[in-house]
Amino acid sequence: MSKTVLWLIIISTILFIIGANTGELTFLMNLGNTI
Amino acid sequence: MPRLRWLIQTLVAFGTNGYLLFPFGGSVIYQGPLKAVCHPGLNCYSCPGALLSCPVGAFQNFLASLRFSTGGLPQLGFLVLGYVGFIGSVVGRLTCGWMCPFGFIQDLLHKIPTRKFSLWKPLRWVKYAMLGVLVVAMPALYVDSSGLGHPWFCKLVCPAGTLEGALPLMVLKPSLWGTISIVFWNKFTILVLTIIGVIFISRFFCRVICPLGAFYSLFSRVSLMKLEFVEGNCVECGACVRACPTGVLPNQEFDSRECIMCLRCVNSCHFRALDFGMRRLPRKPVKTKRATSPL
């Protein structure tokens, strides 16, 4: 595994966790209800 | 291998569009907790059967409502970015070849027996413009008087939305016929042109328009999984080139951004010159002691 892909996986995971903890899951749920 | 791909494409397409309660008095589209999860491929969340959200539509909606973010950090769509970024980092565009329902529809349409054409290669750059302008810049920057942006790619272009969302909804809810505007006819025209394009040119939408494919393609050079070319085994018979649905030359263009890793080339090569596996670290050159002169 190259270092670049390892960093990309780590950054993606961090972004996902940030999103999940800033209410983005609720936003997505509401989006599903309002379409 | 081709049968396995067809099986996975079919299972994913029907499995993620498996909401079947709408004919029996349920709501017209699914509104349950699974909508908080994005589909790895392009699949309209307005499709009556859709169980998951579309990552492209969801990301645009995050940017469009950026000015209404509550809490400390602005909701920039980190959730979607992290999700598709993770998929892209691990498998690159393999999702396009194996898990995208609209890609599957294109594969089926391309089976219609007609004369086939190749794509004019500069058109491949259009999808990056779609990603940059209609998916990122316009939803974030072009807002109405209330400060709300719009998902412009969904609104103006997305033929997957018209085919999987708008048309079935209009059949199920005839009251929607009254809301038809020029925007719908614009999208309907794009859908018709896309279908014609797909029948004659393999994966036309993926190669020219798809912003999700454009995003995943950014990872093609670094993704964990990749196509490997064993140069010593290649006899340059051209079987892989003929098999490729996206016009890549697998024996010349390594880690091509256009490769959707459908593995048709691997399957078509009888000399095992192509393989699919995990990217390895480049080997460091072994330091050898410089030969010293006996003199």
Structure class of chain A: mainly alpha
Largest sheet: number of strands, sense, barrel closure of chain B: 2 strands, antiparallel
Gross geometry of chain B: globular
Share of helix among residues of chain B?
40-55%
Q: Which geometry of chain A do the CA atoms define?
A: elongated
Helical stretch tally of chain B = 13
Distance between the termini of chain A: 41 Å
Strand % of chain B is: under 5%
Rg on CA atoms of chain B, Å: 22 Å
Strand arrangement in the largest pleated sheet of chain B: 1-2
> Residue-averaged pLDDT of chain A, rounded?
86
Main β sheet profile of chain A: none
Order of helices and strands of chain A: HH
Helical content of chain A stands at over 70%
Number of helices of chain A: 2
N-to-C SSE series of chain B? HHHHHHHHHHHEHHE
Tell me how many strands of chain B there are: 2
Assembly annotation: heterodimer
Quick check: average pLDDT of chain B?
A: 89
Biggest interface reads:
A-B, 29 and 41 residues
- Strand percentage of chain A lies at under 5%
Structure write-up:
The complex is a heterodimer of chains A (about 35) and B (about 300). Chain A has about 35 residues and is mainly α. Chain A contains 2 helices and no strands. Chain A has helices at about 5-20, 25-35. The longest helix of chain A is centred in the middle third of the chain and has 19 residues, at about 5-20. Chain A is elongated, with a radius of gyration of 14 Å. Chain B is mainly α. Chain B has 13 helices and 2 strands; from the N terminus they run αααααααααααβααβ. In chain B, α8 packs across α9 (about 180-200). The longest helix of chain B has 19 residues, at about 180-200. Chain B is globular and about 60 Å long.
How do you describe this structure in short?
With 35 residues, chain A is mainly α. Chain A has helices spanning 3-21, 24-34.
List the helices and strands and how they pair.
The complex is a heterodimer of chains A (35) and B (295).
Chain A: H1 3-21, H2 24-34
Chain B: H1 2-15, H2 55-64, H3 78-91, H4 94-98, H5 101-109, H6 126-141, H7 152-157, H8 159-172, H9 182-200, H10 204-208, H11 211-217, E1 225-229, H12 239-243, H13 264-268, E2 274-278
Antiparallel strand pairs in B: 1-2
Helix pairs in contact in B: 2-6, 6-11, 8-9
